[in-house]
Design goal:
This protein has ten helices and no strands. It is mainly α. The longest helix is centred in the last third of the chain and has 25 residues.
Length: 216
């Protein structure tokens, strides 16, 4: 008889197993039953910790955020523009590390207060630059929603880095849309070089915030 003792089952252990499994099966294949098999427990054991799949997704998103910010301190010398750029680059990189990462993050509610310290620091930086609290909150949310939506679309084409879904060949698209030359040529900008595309879009939004609120 084995004397090996398994770690006690808790919310973070379940979320960790779920995030590992997510990269194998994607969000559609992620079930409480599959996670229970991964943990070598019976499915009902998970319901002591999560009443449904949404509650699990909330914890998964929270764990993703913990990992994203672990050991990272905001640079006190950042301008507000640099802070928005830096924070959203880190967010995108984190979401891309998980299959359907943006879908997991979208619409979830953090289960802890780990995000509050970072949010407080970011709001303080933006308001000290002259934005009102409402403007600062909207600047943070707008860039966050851009990143979340961008990665959701990016992962619709490339579920994981280097893994491209069938039907998103830019050259084939251009041939199919030959009767619409501008739309055909735009395919390279729409579905290629996501790093450059993301940076350009993020820069546009930050410049727009600066212009709209009249602050630099």
């Amino acid at each position: 008889m084995s004397t090996e003792r398994r770690a006690p089952l808790d919310r973070r252990r379940v979320a960790d197993a779920a995030l590992t499994l997510l990269n194998e099966v994607g969000l559609d294949g992620l079930t409480l039953r599959a996670i229970a098999r991964e943990l070598d427990v019976k499915a009902p054991a998970l319901y002591w910790h999560f009443k449904d799949k949404q509650a699990l997704l909330d914890e998964m998103a929270t764990e993703m955020f913990r990992r994203m910010t672990d050991g990272i301190e905001p640079d006190p010398d950042d301008s507000w523009q640099e802070r928005l750029l830096r924070a959203n680059r880190v967010l995108r990189r984190t979401l891309l590390a998980y299959r359907d990462g943006a879908k997991v993050f979208s619409g979830t509610r953090f289960t802890g207060l780990e995000h509050a310290e970072q949010q407080e620091a970011n709001l303080r930086l933006l308001t000290s630059a002259g934005l009102t609290l409402t403007q600062a909150a909207r600047a943070l949310q707008t860039t966050f929603l851009y990143t979340l939506g961008f990665v959701a679309e990016e992962q619709g084409v490339e579920p994981m880095p280097g893994e491209r879904r069938e039907g998103f060949d830019v050259a084939a698209r251009a041939r199919l849309m030959a009767g619409h030359p501008l739309a055909a040529e735009a395919g390279a900008a729409l579905f290629g070089d996501y790093d450059e595309h993301f940076e350009e879009g993020l820069a546009l939004i930050v410049a727009g915030i600066e212009s709209r609120y009249g602050t630099n």
